[in-house]
What does this fold into?
Amino acid sequence: MPDFRLCRLLGLLGALWLAGCAGPAVEQQAEEPETNPALAAEYARRAMSAWEQGDRGAAVEAWRQAVALNPEDPVAVNNLALALKEQNRFAEAADLLEQGVTRSPRVAELHYNLAVISELYLLELDKALTHYRVYQDLAGEENAEVDGWIADLERRLQ
It folds into this structure.
């Protein structure tokens, strides 16, 4: 015959365990990833080397590390986005460029590449027109080819 005290103890422990499981959830705050511009520059250098050697996968991963360690670096953001574009990962490239434009709104190349990907691959013509115009303003010099693309988009969007 089971010991009544042991059964009661086990029952109380079980109830306490269940009460603990049903308690309020503990909120965990999302931690900001640590930035390390020096290490990011090393990853960017490795990425460029891998790219030049034809190892596209290693280049993308190294640029991802560089961007994670220094999301403020528009060159790393731009290079990663162009590598993703080459892998036909257009939406991912555009999202990355959008983040880059948010962090570095005065970098013309980010706007240009976002406009090209938006127009040619994602067919987001309004977004493309917006970013071509910003590119022209930031570039500081007239570009007849981009002027033509802007005029074409304006006609197509009427």
Notes: Helices lie at 4-21, 37-52, 56-69, 74-86, 90-103, 108-120, 125-139, 144-157. The two ends are 88 Å apart (CA to CA). The chain has a mean pLDDT of 88. The CA atoms of residues 7 and 13 lie 10 Å apart.
